[in-house]
């Protein structure tokens, strides 16, 4: 009987250990295989789009600083950036007039009223402003920035968190670097990117082990993207370590109990 119980316990322990070890992922290398340079050289990446509840900075300039200042927010109303004196006209403007895009996708622009900006990229907004002000200003030009361009990095990363992007363009690989890289438990072949544009949520999955990831529309992130790195089977097995330990203890208790019972019966 002792032998039978021992065989059963050993078999159960072997099966548990096998299930927990089969999820080991050994290959952590990025960019496996060959780059398709012919395909990658023709890739056109989409420009970041302005979204609802986002802050954008728009400053109007022209040959006449006093005239263009009318189309900029006063320093007291705009952002906290310091005012500056333009040329000799002593015209103080805020060099970064900041607007909050409302739930309807609009901003209230000085001298122009309501402008719908959500869903536009910076170049499209530039052309709209240019068409509206070309007859009012001499050689108008504009500096437009996305003031709240941020991405959220969660999951199996060394330093998950929300990251503000100062240069208004960030690739998935750069964002991963900001988050301290994937842990050894992160699934490199199935990273989820959640993107919302004008209330429509989309889901994209990318494989950073594939060298042609650069051709994906999700390679460059959009403002407010959420990147989720799932755990692999190794981490799942590691999370079960306590259960394995408890099962091992239970099997040991069963073995000891079987020995005690057998000895008591033999007496």
**Quick one: overall form?**
elongated
Helix fraction, binned, reads 25-40%
The total tally of domains equals 2
Largest sheet: 5 strands, mixed
Which structural class do the helices and strands define? alpha+beta
Bin the strand percentage: 15-25%
CATH architecture descriptor name of the largest domain: Roll
**Numbering strands along the chain, what is their spatial order in the largest sheet?**
9-8-12-10-11
* CATH class category of the largest domain: Alpha Beta
Termini distance?
Answer: 15 Å
Unreliable segments (pLDDT under 50, ≥5 consecutive)?
5-26, 76-94
Order of helices and strands: HHEHEEEEEHEEEHEEEHH
Give the count of helical stretches.
7
Q: Name the average pLDDT.
A: 79
Number of strands: 12
Q: What fold name stands as the CATH topology of the largest domain? A: Outer membrane lipoprotein wza fold like
Radius of gyration over all CA atoms, rounded: 30 Å
Write a short abstract of this structure:
The chain is of the alpha+beta class. It has helices at 2-21, 37-40, 65-69, 122-133, 172-178, 233-239, 241-266, and strands at residues 55-61, 84-86, 91-93, 98-100, 106-109, 113-116, 141-146, 150-155, 161-164, 191-197, 200-206, 226-229.
